[in-house]
Design a protein that fits this description.
Length: 256
């Protein structure tokens, strides 16, 4: 349909904003997203090969972010030694939504432990409205991370940048450069608590009662199709089902 026979490689156009005919052609969009994942995986393997040759005893990964639509993370993480992701929930998210993302991360390697490679101790800088986390909220989100199977949490960033695009991003040490802040004290408290649990948490296994299939090809195919509605979002639909199990305290594992 639409006469899409390709006779020469040079006639293939990328489905970009400037090319409407290709941008709304779902089969080309689907192929293009697969191509982006394949080439990103190839780039990772090239770089990981160097690291593994020089430092064979150090695990290699690249941090990902929740459910980035443009990359099939089940494919991208299969060659990583560990899954590590950036946990930046929106102030508007209900507690079940970051929990869903945690379970996707645990599902990327068939239930294996993962890590949070980045988490802000207070606010972000790139949301439309970047509210401070309430007292105790960062600690609660951190324990949610552990409860869903993470072994460790890293913070971005230790010291707030004095300039650049993330100068207003949260940090353990603010621009004032002192430990006499609520955020610093909460991070310190969390670190002391997790140190006491350091022989308990790592390597624990989450026994889930429910399995939910999360299919990246389906994700792409649904949202790159023209119609039936711009409001039909794959992750939102998964979340609708997931929240029932979350509200009833039933463990979920995400299956590719």
């Amino acid at each position: 349909f639409w006469g899409r026979t390709v006779y020469d490689f040079d006639t293939i156009m990328l489905p970009t904003e400037r090319n409407d005919d290709d941008r709304f052609f779902p089969a080309k969009q689907l192929d293009y997203q697969r191509f982006v994942t394949d080439t990103t995986e190839e780039c990772f393997l090239n770089e990981a090969g160097v690291l593994r040759r020089i430092t064979p005893d150090i695990p290699v990964f690249s941090n990902i972010s929740g459910f980035i639509k443009k990359l099939n993370q089940f494919q991208l993480t299969r060659n990583m030694d560990i899954v590590g992701w950036d946990n930046y929930p929106s102030p508007k998210d209900d507690a079940a939504f970051p929990a869903l993302k945690h379970d996707i991360m645990r599902g990327l390697k068939d239930g294996a432990s993962y890590m949070v490679a980045e988490q802000s101790p207070n606010q972000q800088n790139w949301q439309p409205y970047n509210s401070l986390k309430r007292p105790g909220q960062m600690r609660a989100q951190s324990y949610q991370t552990m409860a869903h199977g993470a072994d460790t949490i890293q913070f971005f960033q230790l010291r707030r940048s004095v300039g650049g695009c993330e100068k207003f991003h949260g940090a353990v040490i603010a621009h004032a450069g002192t430990e006499n802040t609520r955020v610093f004290r909460e991070v310190k408290q969390l670190g002391e608590e997790l140190e006491k649990l350091s022989n308990v948490i790592p390597g624990t296994v989450n026994e889930a009662e429910v399995g939910v299939i999360f299919d990246w090809d389906n994700y792409w195919a649904l949202e790159y199709t023209s119609g039936p509605s711009i409001s039909l979002k794959y992750v939102d639909q998964i979340h609708r089902y997931y929240r029932y199990f979350y509200d009833h305290n039933m463990g979920v594992t995400m299956i590719p």
